[in-house]
Specification:
Blueprint lengths: L1 H11 L6 H7 L3 H8 L2 H24 L7 H13 L4 H12 L2 H4 L3 H7 L2 H8 L2 H21 L2 H15 L1 H4 L1
Helix pairs in contact: 1-2, 1-4, 1-6, 5-11, 9-10, 10-11
Length: 170
């Protein structure tokens, strides 16, 4: 039931009412209330499940690979994170930045930032480069979300990766 609600939210965003989630799960609003208690508790569960999925997908994209220069890994990760497979996560969590995030998930903005520092730190060899890379990624994702200009943001990320120098980190 939760997975069906999460699938729906990733595709359509978080609804104002429980009805769309009930329909997506093939159940009734009454059953959702029975299992989750209320709308906000259900939405928190949906957000947490979506976050688990995002961490698994994006974490795999950002992990260090033996024999591969990390800038190459970063370029592939950018393609996955900013592409069609990553956009539902960016959309649903972007809504959390825009809305009342603290009501549904206190501390989400900090967690959503710091979760990505460890794989970047491992790949880039330090907290400074990891923080810089995360800032570039977050900034370009915000730009992409605001403008939809994939070609320009992809080119900008390519420039960033080129600045890292494949030979230096390989």
């Amino acid at each position: 039931m939760l997975d069906a609600c999460t699938d729906h939210a990733l595709e359509h965003g978080l609804p104002d009412r429980m009805g769309p989630l009930a329909a997506a799960a093939g159940t009734s609003t009454r059953m959702l209330v029975y299992h989750f208690g209320d709308r906000d508790t259900l939405l928190r569960a949906v957000l947490r499940r979506a976050r688990e999925r995002q961490l698994a997908v994006f974490g795999d994209l950002l992990r260090v690979r033996a024999g591969e220069a990390y800038p190459v890994t970063l370029q592939r990760a950018w393609d996955g994170i900013s592409g069609a497979a990553g956009r539902p996560y960016l959309r649903i969590f972007g809504e959390r930045r825009e809305g009342a995030v603290d009501e549904l998930w206190p501390g989400f903005r900090q967690v959503a930032t710091t979760d990505w520092l460890a794989p970047l730190h491992e790949g880039l060899g330090g907290p400074g480069p990891a923080t810089l890379a995360l800032a570039v990624i977050r900034g370009l994702l915000a730009d992409l979300d605001a403008t939809g200009d994939t070609a320009r943001t992809d080119a900008a990320f390519g420039h960033f990766v080129a600045l890292l120098g494949v030979d230096q980190l390989g």
